[in-house]
Amino acid sequence: MVSVSVSAVGRPIALAKDLPTTLEFPGKAAENVTISDLKQALAAKFPKFYPSRQKLTLKGEKKALTDEATLKDAGIVDGDELSAKDLGPQASWTTVFVVEYIGPLIIHPLVYHFPNIFYGGPVQHSLLQRYVYAMVMLHFLKREYETLFVHRFSHGTMPFAYIFRKFVISAEPVCHSNPKTESALHPALHITIFWVVLP
């Protein structure tokens, strides 16, 4: 049997008020128990403190222990103490990127097609602005497709608080009527630059 005690690092964890606690794994040795098993056992005692919210470290250290590592690999022996930290609410990476890329797909059309609301009057969009608007929309549609059907993420989650960091981006260069945004360069050159710089 292997047992490990877990205590809160710093201030008490609201979702796991009864820490410190001891996690026991009867009939198992340190080489058969992973950090993920510890997190699952901790979540069994404190259901709201789910595994992706947990950061487990060796006592007195800051580096998080990886889920795949066994206790033996991490240098943990029977009776050792670990520190736990609450990472806060987590969101899956797929959710994060879907929300981030949906922002421009909503904001750009609103600003582009309803200039009376944002600029107080009609806007005559230049040829360049129409090309750029189309490229921006295609770019973010492509990103949504990749997020849903192509990418696999190495980390399961990220802090929920970061989810809106790219939701709002400026639509001013695409949507506002400004002769200074025009250029003598051919629109095909602008499109080429757009595809090289933004992927």
Describe the structure.
The chain has 199 residues and is of the alpha+beta class. The protein folds into 2 domains: 2-87, Ubiquitin-like (UB roll); 91-197, no CATH class. The chain has helices spanning 35-45, 93-113, 115-119, 127-149, 172-175, 187-197; strands spanning 2-8, 21-25, 54-58, 81-86, 90-92, 157-159. A 4-stranded mixed sheet has the order 2-1-4-3, covered by helices on one side. Helix 2 (93-113) packs antiparallel against helix 4 and helix 4 (127-149) packs parallel to helix 6. The longest helix has 23 residues, at 127-149. It starts with a strand and ends with a helix.
State the main characteristics:
199 residues; alpha+beta; Ubiquitin-like (UB roll); 4-stranded mixed sheet; 6 helices; 6 strands; 15% strand; oxidoreductase; lipid metabolism
Please give the domain count.
Answer: 2
The main sheet comes to:
4 strands, mixed
Task: Provide the residue-averaged pLDDT.
Answer: 82
How many beta strands in the DSSP annotation? 6
Give the structure's gist in a few sentences.
The protein has helices spanning 35-45, 93-113, 115-119, 127-149, 172-175, 187-197; strands at residues 2-8, 21-25, 54-58, 81-86, 90-92, 157-159. The protein has 199 residues and is α+β, with helices and mostly antiparallel strands.
